Amino acid sequence: MKKYKLIKRIRRNGSSLAINIPSEIVELLSLSEGEMIELEVRKIQ
Questions:
Q1: Whether 28 contacts 4, CB under 8 Å
Q2: Closest by Cα among 12, 35, 17, 15 to 25
Q3: In the chain, what are the domain boundaries?
Q4: 17, 11 contact by CB (below 8 A)
Q5: pLDDT in tens, 2-17
């Protein structure tokens, strides 16, 4: 299984917080809406 490391900024989306996944990564992993993915979250600042 391929893994990609990203450093992203959290944004507000309505009453939730969200991150955007770049379209290049979405294409490389053949991701689509509704799929389950695994995220590892660490604060770096």
A1: yes
A2: 35
A3: 1-35
A4: yes
A5: 888 999 999 999 999 9
